[in-house]
């Protein structure tokens, strides 16, 4: 159709300026669609390329475990200091004010508790429900080598397929069964399988030696879980070493919410993740902030 613009002003096509074709900062995500990249950019800070995720989904298998008895009291004060939340829909709806506007990685698996076989899980949250809660990503865990290995891989594939329909990325979590060793051989296998199935980022444990090889062999971003509670300095050292060897963030729970001062600890971990601060300096910061 003929242009009916009658304003009379000159148009500016800047014909001598080529349109920019920008790359994308996140490992393995260059060829994803816009919605996926938008959601991943909410989880991973585009300035540092990393993320500080707060994991408090433990109650879905453990009930009111230490530190999470009252999530309204223990978790809410931490929210402003993190980039992203990882929790169940129940925790989110009941305890987290929507006014914080934090991206959410939604725990979608169910079917097991600590009273029975942990790997016997199914998917209990639909992608529509996750989108209704404005989730930025979906997650489930896989038990490579575990009793229900096949079912947990099927759960992951299901989430990836459903998420792809709507542009929602999936985080694959490496759960380590009782008989497995958290070494680089096992974690390298587990993280690579998760990436090959099409997950968009993966959560695993830090290990020594060989974490750098786990990262190199995994074509998507790795974030580390904190694992059992450590003295604060040791937790900061672990986070530092993981970042130094290529992790793109942490998804930490107990080492934050069970710290002597969780609000101080979350800020100390943040400075390691985003500023690559030395652990001793971050520990000094923790002590300075500690009430
Ligand atoms: C376990 O139930 C969850 O996947 C946790 O989110 C995960 O273990 C991270 O929490 P933590 O840092 O306490 O290990």
Our count of domains comes out at 1
CATH superfamily: Aldolase class I
Briefly, what CATH class?
Answer: Alpha Beta
* Major sheet strand order: 1-2-3-6-7-8-9-10
CATH architecture: Alpha-Beta Barrel
Indicate the percent of residues in helices. 25-40%
Which segments are poorly predicted (pLDDT under 50) over 5 or more consecutive residues? none
Q: Based on DSSP secondary structure assignment, what is the total number of beta strands? A: 10
At CATH level 3, the topology is: TIM Barrel
Q: What is the molecular shape? A: globular
- Tally the helices: 13
C-alpha termini separation: 69 Å
Order of helices and strands: HEHHHEHEEEHEHEHEHEHEHHH
Biggest sheet architecture: 8 strands, parallel, barrel
Cofactors, ions and other ligands in the entry: ribose-5-phosphate
Q: What does it look like?
A:
The chain has 291 residues and is α/β, with parallel strands linked by helices. The chain has a single domain, classed as Aldolase class I (TIM Barrel, Alpha-Beta Barrel), CATH 3.20.20.70. Helices cover 39% and strands 14% of the residues. The chain has 13 helices and 10 strands. The chain has helices spanning 34-43, 59-62, 71-74, 76-79, 89-95, 127-132, 149-166, 184-196, 211-216, 232-244, 254-257, 262-275, 279-289, and strands at 51-55, 84-87, 104-107, 109-110, 122-123, 137-142, 170-174, 201-204, 222-225, 249-252. The strands form 2 sheets. An 8-stranded parallel beta barrel has the order 1-2-3-6-7-8-9-10, surrounded by 6 helices. It has a two-stranded antiparallel ribbon with strand order 4-5. α10 (232-244) runs antiparallel to α13. The longest helix is centred in the middle third of the chain and has 18 residues, at 149-166. The radius of gyration is 21 Å and the shape is globular. The N and C termini lie far apart (69 Å). The relative contact order is 0.13. The mean pLDDT is 94. Ribose-5-phosphate (R5P) is lined by residues 55, 57-58, 61, 86, 173, 225-227, 251-255.
């Amino acid at each position: 159709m003929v242009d009916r613009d009658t304003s009379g002003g000159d148009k500016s096509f800047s014909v001598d300026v080529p349109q920019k074709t920008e790359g994308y900062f996140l490992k393995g995500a260059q060829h994803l669609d816009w919605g996926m990249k938008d959601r991943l950019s909410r989880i991973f800070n585009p300035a540092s390329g990393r993320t500080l995720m707060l994991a408090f989904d433990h109650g879905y298998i453990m009930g009111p475990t230490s530190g999470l008895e009252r999530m309204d009291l223990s978790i809410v004060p931490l929210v402003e200091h993190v980039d992203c939340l990882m929790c169940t829909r129940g925790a989110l709806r009941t305890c987290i004010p929507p006014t914080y506007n934090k991206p959410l990685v939604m725990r979608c698996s169910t079917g097991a508790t600590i009273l029975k076989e942990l790997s016997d899980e199914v998917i209990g949250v639909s992608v529509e429900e996750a989108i209704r809660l404005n989730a930025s990503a979906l997650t489930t865990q896989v038990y490579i080598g575990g009793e229900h290995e096949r079912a947990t891989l099927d759960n992951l594939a299901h989430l990836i397929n459903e998420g792809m329909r709507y542009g929602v990325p999936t985080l694959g979590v490496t759960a380590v069964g009782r008989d497995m060793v958290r070494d680089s051989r096992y974690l390298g296998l587990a993280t690579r399988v998760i990436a090959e199935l099409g997950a968009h980022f993966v959560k695993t444990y830090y290990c020594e030696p060989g974490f750098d090889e786990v990262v190199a062999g995994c074509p998507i971003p790795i974030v580390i879980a904190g694992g059992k509670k450590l003295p604060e300095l040791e937790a900061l050292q672990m986070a530092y070493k993981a970042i130094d060897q290529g992790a793109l963030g942490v998804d930490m729970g107990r080492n934050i919410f069970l710290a002597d001062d969780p609000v101080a600890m979350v800020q100390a971990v943040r400075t390691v993740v985003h500023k690559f601060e030395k652990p001793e300096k971050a520990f000094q910061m923790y002590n300075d902030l500690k009430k």
